[in-house]
Amino acid sequence: MFALLENIRVVLVGTSHPGNIGGAARAMKNMGLAQLVLVDPQDFPSADADARASGASDILQAAQVVGTLEEALIGCRLVLGTSARDRHIPWPMLEPRECGVAACEQAQQGAQVALVFGREYAGLTNDELQRCHFHVHIPSDPAFSSLNLAAAVQVLAYEVRMAWLAAQEQPAKPVPVVEQDEEPVTADELESFYRHLEQALVEIRFLDPDKPRHLMSRLRRLYGRSAVNNLEMNILRGILTETIKAARGEHLRQEKADV
Amino acid sequence: MFALLENIRVVLVGTSHPGNIGGAARAMKNMGLAQLVLVDPQDFPSADADARASGASDILQAAQVVGTLEEALIGCRLVLGTSARDRHIPWPMLEPRECGVAACEQAQQGAQVALVFGREYAGLTNDELQRCHFHVHIPSDPAFSSLNLAAAVQVLAYEVRMAWLAAQEQPAKPVPVVEQDEEPVTADELESFYRHLEQALVEIRFLDPDKPRHLMSRLRRLYGRSAVNNLEMNILRGILTETIKAARGEHLRQEKADV
């Protein structure tokens, strides 16, 4: 049954203070989580991290350090990013409690899930936030809203554990047998798709790379919440490939060659 | 409406690390709580506390420092103490979520509420735990169950805030008009009662001070969860006074004098 929690990783992006990494590791271990991924930490490994981890140093030792958020999310089917509430483009939001339930449900079906936390002072960039399927806001006093990083990890890990404990008490839902075609694509597959989509939109001159506006953001929000499956992704990718060919006139040349 | 949260105090008992006091203050302020009471802190005020408070130093400056838990609880009608699950005498337990709801309900009715947190390594003593009406256990992995102090404050303060936000969304329940007689007694009044009760039990030789066993604990558990009101307390105290008189034979002497 713990297998479920093993599918849930905590991703800390650009952390400044190693003490917060240690505090996050301790909070994770208290709540039964073990997978920690650090994106470009400023100071790690560190004695401060070990001190604050206080018995959870196994999690620090097993932590994966990567250079970009994209690498940290490889293989993830659900990506939940912590965020302040007001953003330029409103994104699908979850409460911490809903976040715990959603993470457990996906993990129970064998999907990899990421809980993503931003920098101590600056949070996640807009680009990083747009790689998340949902944003999670921890309700806090608007007059003093910024939680300590390890405290934020504590709250979400606690809600994951509460959802996990509640699921233990219920008769296990039969895990639906999902054909590979029907499985949602992973975060990295979605990123490849966005790059392909963007390229296609530039080629057809719908997107001006010098004035991109919020076009890609809006498209990311749409596909990000749609749980696109493998079959649908193949179709979308096929459309893009053909669109680009068409934009380059290759379609016409191909027709000529066919004649 | 914030008045409600102002009735809820956080009590930290015998804290070793001032950084944890600062972290607790920040977690409180994030969640809209402001009243911090420190029982016999080892190192306070402290630069470490200020550093970890990070913007919540107003809460540290306003913190009340007292010598005993009893002083910290003066005036409180509901006392909730954090505890590991297994104790010699099982006590009425609340989940953190129930704790948030109970604290808000009492605070809304104008009662003072205390959330009590123990020492980093040793928690609360049995004596301190028995001053609490309910114990709260934060569900954690049994293999690594001890949360950082500030993280524990974060979880309970978060549940208080969630309950408070939920209460805002519902039409306000009319606050029942409670006669003074019907108001539950405060924690300090209950302590005086226990002293009186213990004295009476010794006088009637029901309690052997050299072999007290768990008698007082069991009585504390009973009265602690019963929300004894002022009228009932007056009755109980009257019974004790008369019991002691009787045990000393004063009753007989009085009767003689009356003759």
UniProtKB/TrEMBL annotation, chains A, B:
It comes from the Bacteria. GO terms for molecular function: RNA binding; tRNA (cytidine(32)-2'-O)-methyltransferase activity; tRNA (cytidine(32)/uridine(32)-2'-O)-methyltransferase activity. Residues 8-158 form the tRNA/rRNA methyltransferase SpoU type domain. Gene3D superfamilies: 1.10.8.590, 3.40.1280.10. It is found in: Cytoplasm. The keyword Methyltransferase applies. Pfam families: SpoU_methylase. Keywords: Cytoplasm, Methyltransferase, S-adenosyl-L-methionine, Transferase, tRNA processing. Its EC number is 2.1.1.200. GO terms for biological process: tRNA nucleoside ribose methylation. It catalyses: uridine(32) in tRNA + S-adenosyl-L-methionine = 2'-O-methyluridine(32) in tRNA + S-adenosyl-L-homocysteine + H(+); cytidine(32) in tRNA + S-adenosyl-L-methionine = 2'-O-methylcytidine(32) in tRNA + S-adenosyl-L-homocysteine + H(+). It is an enzyme of class 2 (transferase). GO terms for cellular component: cytosol. CDD domains: SpoU-like_TrmJ. Its main location: cytoplasm. Catalyzes the formation of 2'O-methylated cytidine (Cm32) or 2'O-methylated uridine (Um32) at position 32 in tRNA. NCBIfam families: PRK15114.1, rRNA_methyl_1. Homodimer. PANTHER family: TRNA (CYTIDINE_URIDINE-2'-O-)-METHYLTRANSFERASE TRMJ, TRNA/RRNA METHYLTRANSFERASE. Belongs to the class IV-like SAM-binding methyltransferase superfamily. RNA methyltransferase TrmH family. This is tRNA (cytidine/uridine-2'-O-)-methyltransferase TrmJ. It comes from Pseudomonas leptonychotis.
